[in-house]
Amino acid sequence: MSLFKKSKSFAGGVHPPEYKELTENLSFEIMPNPKNVVVPISQHIGKPAKPLVKKGDVVKAGQAVAEPDGFISSPIHCSVSGKVKKITSESNVSGFPKEAILIDASEENELEKMPVLDPETITPEEIRERVKEAGIVGQGGAAFPTFVKLTPPKDKEIDTVIINGCECEPYLTRDYRFMLERTEELLGGLNLAMKALGVKRGAIGIEDNKPEAIAKLKEAAANYEGITIEVLETKYPQGAEKMLIKAVNDREVPPGKLPLDVGVVIQNIGTVIAVYDAVVKGEPQITAAMTVSGKGINNPKNIVARVGTPLSDIIEYCGGVKETAVKVVVGGPMMGVAQFDFSAPIMKATSGILVLTAEEVNDHPETPCLKCGKCIDACPLHLTPTKLSRFTQMDKLEEAEDLGITVCMECGTCTYTCPANIPLVQWIRLGKQRVIELQKERKSA
Ligand code: SF4
Ligand code: SF4
């Protein structure tokens, strides 16, 4: 039962088992540097960065090894010191091979930093510049360059920055540990984001299953003007942007529109801590904090590892997999990506690695639709997942488009709730991609 009586929320959603107890009380461990790293030049939405190094170059941890290519792009920094082995296409936790810089690590561990800046006197322009220079991207999954989010179009009036502290995906406890272990940096980073955007209101939305973090944040936030802690119902996908804005600000983001169209910028917990570290400590984004969990890993942990560390190294650091393990997922179980190549490296936005056993994986056979309507009731965006899935299978893309398939946020709530085990979100994701292609073709015709 909740300790907080009036938790805010949204219509729809589901309550999957949380499994947070596996790691919620485990402090972050800093993983030792790997022997080699694979640093993808595209770890963000937008154009890949352009390499600045070549085979044989000696590089230092923190050094920029690829520069942004265009406005929506981000620099990439070397996560270890060493020598560039080669630049080539490598497999990746996103599921698609990407060009990457392979580096053999040396013993040296000194980090090349940027000059530190004073958070009291820094200007909005200097914050944006530093965030860009540090290569900070959103850590909530989409990896949108943070500099771009802090530079909204001039005709958009932003009045609120919301921090997503929901961490509504089962198993993951990275953000929870951040809230407990780096409370001041989190609030300081939010303050910097508010300053960059010139807004007076900041809010941290947090689910009511985290009473210890709520108490700690409320106490610390009392020292910051304009920042409130908003307690929300524990429900998946409470952390989705539209759900968060509805719960915190009571504003609806219309289909096809963005949070900034209703005056809001959303940032992830880890992202604003990275902003704080870039400004106050001069550190570029070369590490990723994540939860390694699931009943199939020997020693679940919360860890901080260098970007580019292979999955296999992290799994080994956590004691290896149990004989009962059947699946490895990067991210949470609802929206994460199943992995088949464990030499793939972690990236800036990697939030979790789950090693799951058969009892944690739904591999029940698919049966015909029961027409029960559960997927429709659960969809937080009031879509009709059953029809969207069926239209995709029948290649009726116009019909799927008319029903708003491009609005789907791929949260997986419908699939989770379906008693017939129909892989609804997988079909919808495919249909959405095809409709987007169709729309592009129409535009260029
Ligand atoms: S995946 Fe899309 S259709 Fe399914 S519940 Fe989420 S938003 Fe709705
Ligand atoms: S939840 Fe599954 S079985 Fe029920 S209507 Fe939706 S697709 Fe059909």
Give a short overview.
With 445 residues, the protein is of the alpha/beta class.
Report what the structure shows.
This protein is of the alpha/beta class and 445 residues long. Among the domains are: 166 residues, NADH-ubiquinone oxidoreductase 51kDa subunit (Rossmann fold); 71 residues, no CATH class. The protein is built from 13 helices and 17 strands. The strands form four sheets. Strands 1-14-13-17-15-16 form a six-stranded mixed sheet. The chain has a four-stranded antiparallel sheet with strand order 2-8-7-4, with no helix packed on it. Strands 11-10-9-12 form a four-stranded parallel sheet, with helices on both faces. A hairpin with a 7-residue loop joins strand 13 and strand 14. Helix 1 packs across helix 4 and helix 4 crosses helix 7. The radius of gyration is 21 Å and the shape is globular. The termini are far apart. 50% of the residues are buried. The model has no long low-confidence stretch (mean pLDDT 93). The site of one iron/sulfur cluster has 14 residues, from helix 9.
List keywords for this structure.
single chain, 445 residues, alpha/beta, Rossmann fold, 6-stranded mixed beta sheet, 4-stranded antiparallel beta sheet, 13 helices, 17 strands, 28% helix, globular, binds iron/sulfur cluster
